[in-house]
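agent> call fold_tool(seq_1)
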Amino acid sequence: MKKQILVIDDDMAMRCLLQNMLSEKYDVSCADNGLEACYRLSADNIPDLIISDMCMPEMDGLELLKALGASGLYKNIPVIILSTLEDNHTRERCLGHGAIAYLSKPFEAQELMQTVSRPLVSKMFL
């Protein structure tokens, strides 16, 4: 059974790119923003990993991290943040609120795939 990844990005082209990159190895679903992702999670669609954009309307990546961290059900879902923001303050805030990685856009496909595989492989041995 394939591990499930939820991709959250308001840019349809980026969602499609990520889905194409990941769908060979993983079961990928997508959401337009953090708020839509929270609705999906509340409908019992709990992924093994979340990959989220930082800058989105309605609920951005940092707000999503805070919401996940405040939840008993979702706080252990690993989250990778992808962002065009390259400042250390934003990176530190995301990592401080539970992101397992913060990758700058544009990112290298190989780096993303390695970052994605780490928490999914380690979860297999829990």
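agent> call fold_tool(seq_2)
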Amino acid sequence: MGLEIIAEDTDRLIFFRVGTDLLLCFDTDKTQNQTSPPAHAARGIQHFAFECSAEDYERWKIVIKENNIEIEDEIIWKTGKKSFYFRDPDGHCLEII
């Protein structure tokens, strides 16, 4: 998705810049029992949603398809907003809304 990597320890974590926010991803097996910083972990399939402008929505669909990533579902919400869903290499559910 072209997110800027701002920190990486290939054994434990990777941090991305997402606009003015951060997305922190950890290897659960390596961080669930640590004492400093405090332990943190997640198991199972996670869901991440990224909001884009209405003008960029179709462009993001093209980017995903050009990278041979299957779009699993697309929804038009009652508000008129659209979102589509796809999987990352680890099987997590990602959404562009």
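agent> summarizing second result for user.
The chain has a mean pLDDT of 92. Residues 45-97 form a domain with the 2,3-Dihydroxybiphenyl 1,2-Dioxygenase; domain 1 fold (CATH 3.10.180.10).
agent> awaiting next instruction.
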